[in-house]
Amino acid sequence: MTINYSMFMISIIIPTYNEEKYLPKLLNCIEKQSSKNYELIVADANSKDRTTQIAKRHGCKVVNGGMPAVGRNNGAKSAKGDILLFLDADVQFDKDFLKNAVNEMQKRKLDVAGCYIKPLGSNVIDKIFFGIFNLWIAITQSFYPNASGGGIFCRRNVHKKADGFDETIKLSEDMDYAKRCNKLGKFGILRTIKAYISVRRFEKEGRFKIGFKLLLSAVYRVFFGEIRSDIFKYDLRYRK
Questions:
Q1: Is the residue at 237 inside a domain?
Q2: 187 - beta bridge partners?
Q3: What's the pLDDT tens digit per position in 3-23?
Q4: pTM of the complete model
Q5: Which residues have C-beta within 8 Å of that of residue 160, sequence separation ≥ 6?
């Protein structure tokens, strides 16, 4: 059965900080969507470049941001949609991304959902890293939910019950969000969509350095809980 996805308004929330290079590409992807029932909210952390001007030119509502968790929460407070979609500013996807996501959420009766991510570019190491991550989130989705900030869908009532993203977490606040929302509704990884992510951090800081750091952080969370100190020196506001 095909779902009338146009019945569901999506509030797209994008935290930004100096994203004039990447934000236009994401906004262009959104404007080309086959589903037009959405609103755009940019939560900006006092960018020093043209990020906010670009956002306003594309019809985005601009609210105060901060670190990613703060920006996402502030954006959600201004949202009117039935479904919240949290995106990083350096994401891209195809024209049926929104339509397919909502249809699958309805068919599978999901309240919160992540998606598989792919690297922008052809580097083999990047593809291996992303493939490992996708396998991990697929295997663990039923008992230890994880989702990337590159694409998280959540029904607004579940987001409110969960009190949004935990702003005290220094790293993997998106993973914690998926885990907590799963206790309030049904979680799943969407099979019909993919988000394509910039590999700028891998290129700047080194692929194996970042990969090892993320692996250690995942292990830390399993054994010690959420990361509330800056032990991994991972700058969430990294921009290039």
A1: no
A2: 112
A3: 454 578 999 999 999 999 999
A4: 0.91
A5: none
